[in-house]
Each structure stands twice: as C-alpha cells, then as structure tokens.
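Quick illustration for those who missed Monday's session on complexes.
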Amino acid sequence: MCGIIGVLSKDSVSERIFDGLSRLEYRGYDSAGIATIHDNSIHKRRSEGKLQSLKSILEKDPIQGYTGIGHTRWATHGSPTYHNAHPHTTDRVAVVHNGIIENYQTLKDNLIQNGVVFSSETDTEVVVHLIDQELRNGKTPELAVQKTLSQLEGAFALAIVFSQDPKILIGARRGSPLVVGIDENNLFLGSDAWALAPWTQKICYLEEDDVVVMKNDDVNFSYTIFSGEGKIVSRPLKNLNLATGAASKGVYSHFMLKEIFEQPQTLSDTFLALIDEKTFETRIELPIDFTKHHSRILLVACGSSYYASLTAKYWFEKYARIPCEVELASEFRYRDPVLTENDICIFVSQSGETSDTLAALNLAKAKNCSTLAIVNVPESSMARAADYCILTLAGPEIGVASTKAFTAQLAVLCVLGLKIAEQRACLDKQNLFEYFKELLHLPKLVTHVLQDVSVFDALGQRLSMASDILFIGRGTNYPVALEGALKLKEISYIHAEAYAAGELKHGPIALVDKTIPLIAISPNDNWFEKTSSNIQEVASRGAPIIMLTNDLEFTLDCRDFCKILLPKTGSLNNCFIYTVAMQCIAYYTALHKGTDVDQPRNLAKSVTVE
Ligand code: M6R
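Prediction with 5-amino-5-deoxy-1-O-phosphono-D-mannitol bound:
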C-alpha cells in the first residue's frame, strides 16, 4: 500500500515532498520519510507513526536539495519501526517502494553472502543494495536500475535518487501504480495523480514494467520512458482537471463524521447524474447488452464495496431477472473461475486501485468478458482499465472507514439494476417512474435520520463497553448488517459478527449470552415477522437487544430492549437509511472508546498490495 513521491526541481524539494505525502497518507500511516540529494550526499529524515511526527522532525532539522523522494508506509515486511521506515539508502542510492518483492529472501541471502549488512527487515532494502552493487561496478544509474529490476519478482512502484548524479530521478513500476507529472521547472513522480494535482495536472501514467528516467540538464527538464524490453516508448500525456483544494474537516471533529453528514448531498449528486429529476427517467445509456441469451452478471469487489455488491445482487435478480454472482476479488482472481464472453463483470471500488479487484478486472478482460468499473476516483487504474466506467459522485473520501462512498455505490448499483430491468423489459415505465421517484426522495430521508444523532451517541456510549456485538438483517439489510459489523470492527476494534437473521439458529446462537448485544435491522417489510421471531429467540436467551426499525408497535418483553425508530421508506430506500444508522452507531461507539476514528490502527484507505 504505501504512497511514494519523487521531485526533480530547480527549487528546494523537501516541503513539496511533504505536501505530496499528505495527500498520500490514505495509503498508509505506519511511518514516513524523505530523502534528498544535496552536495553529492543523501540526506534523510524518517519517523515512526503518522506524517505529523515527520513534520516535527523536519521543522527542527530541515533538509536541502533539489532532488528527492518521500514515502508514507503501510507495513508489510517488518514492523512499523523507525529502522523499517523508507527511504532505504546506502551512500550511493536512496529508494522508496510501494509493493512487495516476493523473492526478497533469496536475494537477501545472496547479498548477505557477499558481505552486505542489512539495517532493516524490509523487502525493499534488497533493491537498494542491488542497485548499489551495480553502481559500484561502474554502471550508470539507468543500467544499475534496469539490471536490478530484472532480478525482482512481485509488485513495485519505485522512486530512486543517486548521490553522485543529483539531477536524475528514476521511477519504475510493475503491479503498483506510478504517475509522472510534468511542468517547465519540475518533474514529479507520485502514486496517484491527486498527489501531484496542486503542482501540475499534466501527467502520464506509466504502464506495466515501464521505467522512467528524469533528468535536469540545467537548461531543460526531460524524461524518457523505457518499456520492459528496454525500448524507448511514449505514453499519452493527459491534462487532468482534478480538484486541488485540501480536504478539511470543517466544523466536524472527524472526517468520518463529516462524510456521514455529506450523504444527503453525495446521494443527490449521484442520483441526479443518473436520473432526470423532471421525467424520472435514467440518463445512463447502457453500453452493454444485458439481454443476450445466457448472459450473467458477476460483481467483484473487496471489503465494503463487496457488501455494496451483495446488496446489488438482490436488486439485479429481483428487478432485472438476470443471474448475478458476487465474488470476493481476492478469491475470484486465484480460483480459475469459469468465464465466458457472455459474462458481464462489474468491478466496484471506491479507490479504483485495490490490487485484488484490479487483478480480477484484468483477468476478466483476458477472458473477453465485458467489463464495467464503478469507482469513486476518476482516472484511477480501474476507471482506465475497464471497457466502461460509471463514477460514484461521493467526492474525495478521507476517513479510512468508507461511508459516503458506500452509499454512493449502492445508489449507482440500484439505478443500474433498474436500467438493466428496463433494457430486459422486466419493469414497465410506470414501475420505473415510481422507483426513480422513490430514490430521488432518499436524500431528504437521510437528512431526517441525521437531524438528531443523540440516540446513536447514547447507544455508542453503551456499546463502547462491549467486547462482542452481533448484527442480524434479512434481504438487502443482510449486507447492511455485514457492513455495520465491519464499520464497528474497523474503527472501535470491538469484535462484531453479522449474520443473515435466519442463519442465527444454525450455530451462531450458541454465542448468545447477556454480555453480547444483538443489533437487529428490522424494517417493517416482507421479512418483519420472521426477523421479529429471531429477535425473540435471542432475547429469551438473555442478550441485550437493539432493534432498528420503522415499526411503531413492536415491543419486546425483555430486560434490556432498545428500539431505534427510523423513517418509513419504500423498499429500495430502506437499506440506505439503515446503513446511515449503522455508520452513526460505529462512529459514536468508537468516539466513546477513544480510538483513532479517521486513521484506525493497521488499516489504510487503499489496499494496493495483495
Ligand atoms: O477502494 P475499494 O472500495 O476497492 O476498497 C475496498 C476495501 O478495502 C474497503 O472497502 C475497506 O473495506 C474499507 N476500509 C471499509 O470501510
């Protein structure tokens, strides 16, 4: 995961590198570091923990130099300590790395046999010593890097600087993304275009196995891209139009809370891009023919995006009557799935960079399936790789726990399902009109839920004492229960499990006792009676019950029963409403526990390693 930055400039670079890292911290925040070249030597500052600690170090002990690299780390090989923090260096070379060198142990053993002494437990350090050895043997920086890359297995985006060649910056990628940014007086490398956006929007994306050599010859800045075969290649230059404003929390104490409260707006933006508010018809032109005989949909994703996809299965099958399977990308990509040209594979991802989902997309393309990406980040790897792309308009999501991006995914998937139903003639115009009207009313309902969050605050205080919590739901609220449990685990570190309500008695009910609260999502819908019975079964075994419902009448004769009333909605809208409630419960529970809500331990916003 990790974020990397490189800058070759006519001016001092360390502040800019730090600024770029602040836009990449979503990729990891276990440690951070910067190295620059000044007076033909490498200057480096590193720190454990978040970027803020590196800032204090740089303030006390600044570094100069017109060429430099930076890194924000999500630890893979080696614990998140100072010594494992990047950049890794010798006297001659400094390297930052995003990815995993899979054959690092063999390479390390060989290097140790040749007398090399390692100072970290990272896989990255082998890259540094391999390049160093080639430089000692008289190779140029370009050749030293090329020779080294040919020995590496695994995934990497690398930025490399050299003490004896202070006006050269080299980048290389395989498996992990790397972007080149260009302006007259600077050249940049970054893990994504957003990191570079305030400096330049003229960028080019490196392709698999590309190496870029950037040079400053005192008059001009130039860069040359080499393909994996060592041939000079050109990659398309793009002029982007990305927002550059620094995201701020505004009046909110956390980004997560701000993002929860942005949902009436983000849902409205997403729906209005897809549905005409006057005619209640969709604006999407379906680029794929979903009516073909034998066609089936595969939804592939990870984490919360997987739960959004699970919800979509209910809609796609119910409304569009099309077979639909939902796959965890990390399993799908390795289990040799049966795929045919009739399959339509939809990849759902906030970041558009998740390594497993991207690999699954490439697999589907290789099997000639139609591919559609639903992503929140324009110009992300998935947006560029898929045949077609629909954007969720949630805006940048900073909190590691997904909130507004998740509901925006639900919004796109729901409209898409209805549009497919229209193409397949499964719903008539009047049905569609009613459903789209219902969806356009959703932002108002979400505003209503968020008007008074004191009930979630009070509940959060109570739940923060629990060590285990169970969630149940049925239909589209089963994935919402899964998402609610994930949210709670991620930010409060409380163990939580979610079950389809009907499944509870097939094993998990053995867990029930009076110390484990049950959170039941139970709107008054077709399953209400059934879920009510499941709630009774748990209550009679002494567990505290928290029921989220829109049913005014339901009561439970038990010692510890809390009913949270949510607005009455149509059948499409209710899973959105219950999701927002789940987000608030997780947020306030974490707040009362005192955990780091926006940057929970061990996590990163974008998972770009397997
Ligand atoms: O960027 P993606 O949607 O592909 O990310 C997938 C998961 O890593 C992500 O949803 C993760 O589970 C979130 N932290 C959930 O809050």
